[in-house]
Amino acid sequence: MADSSIQSILREHRLFWPSESFAQAAHIGSRAQYEQLAAQAREDPEGFWAEQATRELEWFTPWNQVLDWQPPSARWFVGAKLNITHNCLDRHLQTWRRNKAALIWEGELGDTRTLTYSQLHWEVCQFANALRALGVEEGDRVGIYLPLIPEAAIAMLACARLGAIHTVVFGGFSAEALRERLIHCQVKLVVTADGGWRKDAIVPLKAQVDQALVGVETVKNVLVVQRTATPITMEPGRDHWWHDLRQGMSAVCPPVDLDSEHPLFVLYTSGSTGKPKGVVHTTGGYNLYTHLTTKWIFDLRDTDVYWCTADVGWVTGHSYVVYGPLSNGATILMYEGAPRTSRPGCTWELIEKYQVSVFYTAPTAIRAALRQGEHLPRACDLSSLRLLGTVGEPINPEAWIWFYRVVGGERCPIVDTWWQTETGGIMVSALPGAVPLKPGSATLPFPGIQADVVNHKGEGVPPNSGGYLVVRYPWPGMARTLYGDEERFRRTYWEHIPGQLYFSGDGARRDEEGYFWVMGRVDDVINVAGHRLGTMEIEAALASHPVVAEAAVVGRPDPVKGEEIVAFVILEQGSSYHEGLHQALKQHVVQEIGAIARPGEIHFTEALPKTRSGKILRRLLRSVAAGEEVTGDTSTLEDRAALDQLRETN
Ligand code: PRX
């Protein structure tokens, strides 16, 4: 994509300062302090990170080198040993926090559980011993396919305690998508539940696992948590109930000494090909990076009740539901359900009920709430809130202002946090006591993050010009590789732009004050309700249907979800269109990937606009999908008639 095609049209000039009392109490309470930290980290990145690592975490063995950087391969805290669960659990047991609530959970049915740090530690140790009893060893991969219940965090931490590598698959993914990930990651054991509650219905997780596992040889055992008490089939010898297995199970399980670079997890995310990428994060650097970003960006205090609404199936759930907050000794709220017709105001009711003080959610959820109307949040006492956050996609100023005014009562700063699965933690965000906010901007890079906006040669572009969002220097939370595919890692992130820069795949501009304005993906990835989906993945799913010869998928702006999926489909010769085909193909995508990938619209066509070399011109399809006039260069189009025909079918 040419740089000139990244055009920035958004202009927003309002500035929002934190109140004096907020700034005074904040970890980082002034712009000068932010600048000083950023300057220190720029001048001596290794010294900066080493100082934080010493101050914030406990290590079993110290490092002998802070960073070993052989682009694109980074090793942080080389030679050090630690266990992230020691930092998330054991060390708090030595303090007054042992009886502090670590996790407050509420299910969709209104049932609740609270686990103190001491209780969570107990559960994690028992779970780890159960995994070990089922043959899980250091380095083995464990699949986790659970609803948002405490066991999701417990299972992750149990793996980490043993040095087993977890790969969490979002419970909304289909059996097919689960199977692909389990096979790719050569998973040895799967943790699942009989079912989970979502929007007043039961998601049959165990049945999906059964379907996914047919013929998958590596998976020897399935550990099943009882959540919904729905009837399921248990395969003797392979499937085990957690509540049976834990009977008499010891809760003594010392954390394993792990190398700082020992893999902690693999998390699959969409890229611009049909195959998801297994992003690998390791232990020491990830622990430090998620810890420090949580502390400074969410400005965490021991008295906070912190609620991040993400599911553990996404990276936000890893870094900012589980590891970052627990490492800080925070009290976390976890809610199994989602806003739904039967309880549209549940978000606000939960904030009131649990006196949530820090609330981190997605722009799509804010836009949905905005549409429902102010009366729902207004009906609840939200005065406990002191800080708000957003993640997943750019937030439009209208939604930002609504969030600020109606939810935050004009007293809570909003941290708009830009980051990705690959970055491990937040990269660009305000430190809320230090940096004034501009609605729609993620503001400034975290200290130690050398983010920049460049052209295709890697040269910085002038203020307010569009370009590629890159990072110029390694950081502790960065992905180390793609599971089983170092070559793709190199190609995708490190070879696009010269100069050994990390290429994020996003377009952005920086204004005259250095504020970042993220403009969205520049590759074939679309962002539906804050979830990343590769257009190729959806195209491959459509093309796997027997009547489909070829498919092209693009995003179309959507007022709530950010983007909506629009598919253009060519049928096989001999297959003809019939009523019901729209539905059948949508359902097919749901089966192949999951409900999040369901196309909103399908157009049937005879031809697709392609270049002479056969590449689909998505730019044109995007215009057609949005009902816009097709403008710009169409000279590379092989067959002009294809475009005209598309417009007619529209
Ligand atoms: O396009 C950016 C968008 O989400 C992408 C990363 O998606 P994923 O790896 O699934 O992680 C989502 C949660 C971190 C980015 O490449 N994105 C994320 N946060 C923002 C954003 N776009 C604009 N502003 C944000 N705050």
Average pLDDT score: 94
CATH architecture of the largest domain: 3-Layer(aba) Sandwich
Characterize the largest beta sheet: strand count, sense, and whether it forms a barrel.
7 strands, mixed
The CATH superfamily name of the largest domain is ANL, N-terminal domain
Total of DSSP H or I helical runs spanning 4+ residues: 20
Structural class call reads: alpha/beta
Radius of gyration: 24 Å
- The end-to-end distance, rounded to whole angstroms, is 26 Å
Number of domains: 3
What would the CATH topology of the largest domain be?
Rossmann fold
The percent range for helix content is: 25-40%
| Overall shape | globular
User: Beta-sheet strand percentage?
Assistant: 15-25%
CATH class of the largest domain: Alpha Beta
Report the bound ligands by name, code or SMILES.
Answer: adenosine-5'-monophosphate-propyl ester
Tally of extended strands?
30
Strand order of the largest sheet: 5-4-17-16-18-19-20
**Low-pLDDT regions:** 1-5
Description:
The protein has a seven-stranded mixed β-sheet with strand order 5-4-17-16-18-19-20, with helices on both faces. A five-stranded parallel β-sheet has the order 7-6-8-11-12, with helices on both faces. It has a four-stranded antiparallel β-sheet with strand order 21-22-24-25. It is α/β, with parallel strands linked by helices and 650 residues long. Strand 26 (525-528) and strand 27 (531-534) form a beta hairpin. The protein folds into three domains: 20-83 and 266-488 and 496-517, Rossmann fold (3-Layer(aba) Sandwich); 85-256, 3-Layer(aba) Sandwich (Rossmann fold); 525-649, GMP Synthetase, Chain A, domain 3 (2-Layer Sandwich), CATH 3.30.300.30. It is built from 20 helices and 30 strands. The relative contact order is 0.11. Helix 2 (31-43) crosses helix 3 (45-56), helix 10 crosses helix 11 (315-327) and helix 13 crosses helix 15 (397-407). It is globular. Bound molecules: adenosine-5'-monophosphate-propyl ester. Adenosine-5'-monophosphate-propyl ester binds next to helix 11, strand 20, strand 24 and strand 25.
